[in-house]
Amino acid sequence: MCWDWRGCRPKAEVGRGVDSVTLGRSISSSKESRGVVDFSTAKGLGMPSSAAGLLFALGLAQGGFACAQGSPPSIADCAAIQADQARLACYDRASGRLPVVAQTSGDAVPERTAMAAPAAPLSGGDTPSAVASRTPAETSLIDKAWAFDPGSNPFDISPYNPNYLLIGNFTNRINNRPFSPLFDALEAEDQDLDTTEARFQLSFKFRMWSTDDRRWGLWAAYSQMSQWQVYNDKISRPFRETNFMPELMVSYRPDISFGGFDWRLLNVGYNHQSNGRSDPISRSWDRIIASIGIERGNFALVLRPWVRIDEGDSDDDNPDITDYYGYGDITAFYTWRDHSFTLMGRGNPSTDKGAAQLTWMSPQVLGPLRVYVRAFTGYGDSLIDYNWKQNTIGIGMALNDIL
Questions:
Q1: CATH class of this structure's domain 134-398
Q2: Domain boundaries, the chain
Q3: Given 272, 284, 340, 350, which residue is catalytic?
């Protein structure tokens, strides 16, 4: 049989054929020992085409396996790699180190710790305990009203006394007496004032100086209250009374606890109050007033003792005003579900004269505005009425309460 596809050769030549060793050596040395059989080599060995094809297929299989298994790279090969991650992976293969298997969902994952923002530096007079005791969640009614928070504006401007407008304020006993001389001089036919009038007040305070921890402060304040006969067209709707009240005071936050209450306000200042008119209807007085505020939760008490500055009998428009106003007042303040209530009392026990005031403010109903109801009984509803007793009730809108 002839084994050469190019033609038969002599038997002696065929007899010389190749043994398995020679064939294996040829296969392993072909293509630079990369496991690929050179088809021309097989032909040169005098093998038929079918055998050469079989050897070629086996060589492909051997080469594929060799490519898959591949001998480990050398250290020199890895050192020549420029990319850091690829070079590290090459070193792992060269050393026989297995690649790291990614963690499964069941593996514990190290918990990341959130980085805390750096703490703000403390103000000059603050201590960590003092600042911690005045966190926003625990800010008191008094602290909020008087801006005792160390982070507040040192030049704070804010409401002081209630800012309100009573569209109707009814009294059971209107005071015509102070105006009778004026009506007589003008020969007015109708000298009666309406028992229903409007009443409004504007009031604000401004901190001019404070310490870094806001526990001390210097305040200026101004309040103006007017009673307006707006429904009395017979006498041209005049302002029956306007009271002006500038103040200058020093505030301090004691921060002392006793009996379940926290003492958080101590103010001392000068107060002037007048109606800005000339005789015979001029009314005015000057006082040194202290304000002491304590609180417990949503309840607060503000006690205000005062001393009148003597003006001398000749210049005093109302020398007996303390007979009716007394020497101080006390106001209770309570909040409940955004409603606020106040009850004020004052008087002079020696003369058995005084006054009381009850107010209610609703939650906000129109922007910042709240429904406001005010009831008063006794003497001194305004300076012109300091010695006039009456009962009044009014309703309207307000912007803020005393705290």
A1: mainly beta
A2: 11-95, 134-398
A3: 272
